[in-house]
Amino acid sequence: MKISLLLFITAIFSISNKELETNVYICKGKGSKKYHYLKSCRGLSNCSTNASELTLSKAKEMGRTLCGWED
Q1: Rounded distance, CA 10 to CA 48, Å?
Q2: 38, exposed or middle or buried, with CB in 10 Å at 0-12, 13-18, 19+?
Q3: Residue 38 carries which DSSP code?
Q4: CA distances from 27 to 6, 33, 46, 47 (A)
Q5: 8-state DSSP, 42
Q6: What is the pTM of this model?
Q7: Would you give the DSSP letter of residue 36?
Q8: What is the pLDDT of residue 30?
């Protein structure tokens, strides 16, 4: 029982860790608050700057949330 619980916890940590290493796109415009999985997301179409690529964990640290077109 303890071994399977440990394996379960390890698997969850591994999945979460991979998710946070995923690259996403953000607009660096003044009012931008979202991140996007796709550079072609229509939520980036009004971006006044070039879309920047960064990790999901960094985007979340910046307070960004997932674009409504992609959730």
Answers
A1: 42
A2: middle
A3: -
A4: 40, 8, 9, 6
A5: G
A6: 0.70
A7: B
A8: 86
State the amino acid at position 7 in one-letter form. Answer: L
Smallest CA-to-CA distance from 19 within 66, 63, 51 is with 66
Per-residue pLDDT averaged across 56-69, rounded? 94
- Identify the burial level of 44 via C-beta atoms within 10 angstroms of its C-beta, where 0-12 means exposed, 13-18 middle and 19 or more buried: buried
The pair of structure tokens assigned to 57 is 């964990």
> In this predicted structure, what is the pLDDT of residue 70?
86
pLDDT in tens, 6-43: 555 555 555 555 555 799 999 998 889 999 999 999 99
Residue whose token pair is 């979460």: 16
